[in-house]
Amino acid sequence: MSQNDIVLVTTATIIQDEEVLIIKENKPAALNKWTFPGGHIEYGEDILYAAQREVKEETGYDINLIGTTGVYNFLSNISSQVIMFHFIGEITGGRLHLDEEGITGSMWIKLSDFAQFKDDELREPQVIKQIIRNLLNEEVHPISIYHEKLAR
Ranges for the Nudix hydrolase domain (predicted)? Predict the structure, then answer.
């Protein structure tokens, strides 16, 4: 990727029994960093579908999207501009089965436990911390603010 790339991604906070699922990545740009499940939006793909697909691919869980904390625009650690759509989801099916190539671990934690992590343990720590603040302060928006991709 060049310095002028714009990358579109989705992530999701999966909530279950007052805890959230985080994953440890095994990717060159984020080796052993904790984050929320997610990934790239494919060309022409609906954003909501992309979030559900990425969670399924990385964790094995089927989810229902119930809200969003918003859209985050930042420069990544490899100098790409990232526009990230972050969602909140509930498990509707599947079982935990991590993507063996890209994920090395997972854990369920309380939102307040994010304070235990050092910045170098998190992927894009400023963004993760903003998402956590939004969740703790209940600054959450209804999923209906997103519209599914319109047919041509």
Answer: 1-133
